[in-house]
Amino acid sequence: MAESRVVLVTGGSKGIGRAMAETFRDAGYRVAATYRSGGVPDGVLGVTCDITDQGQVDQAFSTIEAELGPVEILVANAGVTRDTLLMRMSDEDWDTVIDTNLTGTFRVVRRATRPMMRNRFGRVILISSVVGLLGSPGQINYAASKSALVGMARSLARELGSRNVTANVVAPGFIETDMTAVLPEETIAGYKSRIPTGRLGTVDDVAHAALFLAGEHAGYITGAVVPVDGGLGMGH
Ligand code: NDP
């Protein structure tokens, strides 16, 4: 059964990652999710892991392999923001975002794809952002980290395509989670007025795009950037 495949979602403690873990679980997949704080949904194997630490990444994969078997579908979702205008952005703001969103994703992808290549099956789904290609004032670090995931996925698609491993990007728009709850009212209203569908996105909107890309019927889709943004980024 394709739906009993093993899925790993990084950052499954809350927000989009938690919803994705629940959606894959409900579809019958065997799901593991990483967390640093909090926990993971019932019926999901929780593994503690900070993706800025290669040792923790390796340990998490060993645990998942022992409990569930090799990861066949990787959803690299964990990410952070440190928003501020360029003139005020510290090295630490830059380094934290790049080390988590970009290098952290690299660490997880490198570890996940070894068994995928061996087993001649894999689905890599990188959670980017509409901001990666659209740009956003105050998010130079975040936009740089998220646009880099497009280059990563497309290079992976070319490197691993012959091994039946696909690599795609999901680019959410404005989704209601803790990450966006901290934004000022006027910023949220400003975004809303520019979204053709006239509403903010939900975590389920994103989760179902990832579910589709992981499925057996998506095997001929690779190197794609799938927007889940109500049309906010159209044209990029
Ligand atoms: P949340 O802040 O709600 O959740 C982020 C998740 O990432 C948490 O589970 C957190 O774990 C985990 N995480 C953060 N840093 C690390 C780390 N170093 N190691 C391991 N896990 C880590 O964010 P969202 O759910 O909103 O965002 C999820 C993804 O979607 C992110 O990549 C984000 O950039 C992207 N995105 C979000 C959008 C939105 O509008 N919300 C729009 C576009 C993209 P813990 O809490 O346990 O530390």
TrEMBL record:
Record carries keyword Oxidoreductase: yes
Domain Ketoreductase: 5-178
Key words of the record: Oxidoreductase
Keyword Aminoacyl-tRNA synthetase listed: no
GO MF entries: oxidoreductase activity, acting on the CH-OH group of donors, NAD or NADP as acceptor
Protein origin, superkingdom: Bacteria
Family of this protein: Belongs to the short-chain dehydrogenases/reductases (SDR) family.
Protein name as annotated: Beta-ketoacyl-ACP reductase
Organism (species): Tessaracoccus lapidicaptus
